[in-house]
Amino acid sequence: MRRSLKLAAVVLSGSLGIASLAACGAKSTDNNTSSGASSGASSVKVGMAYDIGGRGDQSFNDSAARGLDQAKDQLGVQVTEAEAKTGEAEADKEARLKSLVSAGYNPVIAVGFVYQAAVEKVAKENPNVKFAIIDSASDTQPSNVTSLTFSEQEGSYLAGVAAASKSKAKHIGFIGGVQSELIKKFEAGYKAGAKSVDPNIVVETTYLTTPPDFSGFNDPGKGKEAAQGQLDKGADVIYSAAGSSGNGSIEAVASKGKWAIGVDSDQATQPALSKYKANILTSMVKNVNVAVFDYIKAYKDGNPLTGVKNFDLKAEGVSLAQTGGFLKDIQPKIDAATQAITSGATKIPTTPEN
């Protein structure tokens, strides 16, 4: 049976004391083997620093957590997890990463673009430690940092095709958690996909916060309010790319009997959202778990991934969930759009058109 222990109760190697790492919200998972895992504990110790919302957000962080769990179960690696806090300072992110390094974790995986500056700084200070950052890439990051990125605009394009095809009002919505370059990729693809079906369709757009306020990824109340506003304007399909804030959006949309589109994980299958599954048209799944597992496996095998590793539609890095079977009647449109993207015939914008 798998057990989770606060690091305050675990003996750690390295120069950092237990109390310091526990103060950063970290917890360690003991190493048991399961089918496919080698016998005995691996010497590889993987540290994961979550974005706000953490494990249990039913979305982005949970997808990363599934990859970590798979690596633990199948590869036998030791793991620990560190949680972020809403409204924290840049120094807090740096301290979290330094704590993992000092406790002997290598590689260290940072979940989310908000870690970019912290990862660059801590990686430069620790050239013998490998780092991965999800959803961000920089020309200035050191060689011991690997970027795990996704073609969110491609999956979102398919979500737009689905939304426009299902909308009876010819009026749909997009809710972004934080107005950032990353989330604009979701918006751009969604709008382009919708307009490929109906050039005259109306697309409402709402962002919950702007940097440096990243609470838009962890405020279901704001997501619910934004969705209610779009519903009041006539939207009957709403796509939210907003982390756990999107949970509130889904609730609002379902209460009105309209269609919601989830993000990152197949949200119709998430425990906290399953009661709304009859109104979740699909989810734009970002297979962060695949990227996390592939990165850890490559490191354990002695062939670490380097530079920027992008997971696009062709590589099944993004996809549309089929739970509920609500796409069956429009599947030919989805398939045609998929073929056009993977063949290179259709290029998807990464910035929204005005």
From TrEMBL:
Signal sequence, start to end: 1-22
Membrane-related topology note: Lipid-anchor
ABC transporter substrate-binding protein PnrA-like domain: residues covered: 47-349
Predominant place of localization: membrane
Domain of life: Bacteria
CDD domains in alphabetical order: PBP1_PrnA-like
Keyword flag Electron transport: no
InterPro entries attached to this UniProt entry: BMP_lipoprotein, Peripla_BP_I, PnrA-like
Gene3D superfamilies the UniProt entry points to: 3.40.50.2300
SUPFAM superfamilies per UniProt: Periplasmic binding protein-like I
Keywords carried by this UniProt record: Cell membrane, Lipoprotein, Membrane, Signal
Pfam families on file: Bmp (PF02608)
Location in or out of the cell: Cell membrane
Family classification: Belongs to the BMP lipoprotein family.
Protein name: BMP family ABC transporter substrate-binding protein
Organism: Kitasatospora arboriphila
